């Protein structure tokens, strides 16, 4: 019989319950081509992203926060 251990998510975890997005999913939310998202990532001006293995991922809340910042101040980077 195997024992399954569940770790509680600590309240300090900023993205608890958040959704991970692929580049394609993030590009669809922002409504830009994936190539544009890649270019912004290269420049460091797009939504915050990170790697999981060989894949680039985005937190949904980070993408939405970045969009909100763009609508408030289009010259803002990150």
What would you note in describing this structure?
This protein is an alpha+beta fold and 78 residues long. Helices cover 40% and strands 13% of the residues. The chain contains 3 helices and 3 strands. The protein has helices spanning 23-30, 34-43, 60-72; strands at residues 20-21, 50-52, 55-59.
Briefly summarize what is shown.
The protein has 78 residues and is an alpha+beta fold.
What pattern of helices and strands is seen along the backbone?
EHHEEH
Distance between the termini: 49 Å
Q: How would you classify the helix and strand content by structural class?
A: alpha+beta
Q: Write down the Rg.
A: 15 Å
Gross geometry: globular
Kindly report the spatial arrangement of strands forming the biggest sheet: 1-3-2
Number of helices: 3
Number of strands: 3
State the helical fraction.
25-40%
Q: What's the rounded overall pLDDT mean?
A: 86
Strand content: 5-15%
Poorly predicted sequence stretches spanning 5 or more consecutive residues:
none
Major β-sheet annotation: 3 strands, antiparallel
